[in-house]
């Protein structure tokens, strides 16, 4: 780095370091870790300062370096936190798992979805199964965002009501499995 490039870099750091430190703090949640993260990103940027093509936008490069340094740090930290055990966590035992109840519950949910009007069903599928925002759902369905929200509200109320009352599959599963029958 020649003297002019070093001067440019020092001016950039002086002008933008406060904002960049704030970003690093928000990523780490700690001021000291944020300072370390910013220092790492600025050191990386200093090494490549003469290669930056667009000198008008070095902040974008530094912010990207901060983000990537944080991701690398997170990966390193999370790697060391793993603990080796001989049992898998959160695994139900093979004898305790009742897959029939899960299948019946899924069938009840699908039946309740099929009973919804088409627009309400579409809103529920787009929102909760495809994880789309209101604006995108409104554009896909050709309706206003308020309509999306009201249809979501009505559909969820209908689903809650239909799943709260015992349906025919819930009654048949309890008698078929022997539970709920007093002999």
Give an overview of the whole structure.
The chain starts with a helix and ends in a 7-residue tail after the last helix. It is elongated, with a radius of gyration of 28 Å. It has 8 helices and no strands. It has 183 residues and is an all-alpha fold. 11% of the residues are buried. The C terminus is likely disordered. Keywords: DNA-binding, Sigma factor, Transcription, Transcription regulation. This is RNA polymerase sigma24 factor. It comes from Streptomyces albiflavescens. Belongs to the sigma-70 factor family. ECF subfamily.
Give keywords.
RNA_pol_sigma_r3/r4-like, 183 residues, WH-like_DNA-bd_sf, disordered C terminus, sigma factor activity, transcription, 8 helices, mainly alpha
**3D shape:** elongated
Percent of residues in helical segments? over 70%
Count of individual helical segments: 8
In round numbers, the mean pLDDT is 80
The Rg value, from CA coordinates, equals 28 Å
Q: Kindly state the number of beta strands.
A: 0
Strand content: under 5%
Q: Structural class of the secondary elements?
A: mainly alpha
- Main sheet: strands, sense, barrel: none
Low-confidence stretches: 169-183
Distance separating the two termini:
89 Å
Order of helices and strands: HHHHHHHH
- In terms of quaternary structure, the protein is single chain
What secondary-structure arrangement, pairings included, does this model have?
Layout: H1 3-28, H2 31-48, H3 58-80, H4 99-115, H5 118-129, H6 134-141, H7 145-164, H8 168-176
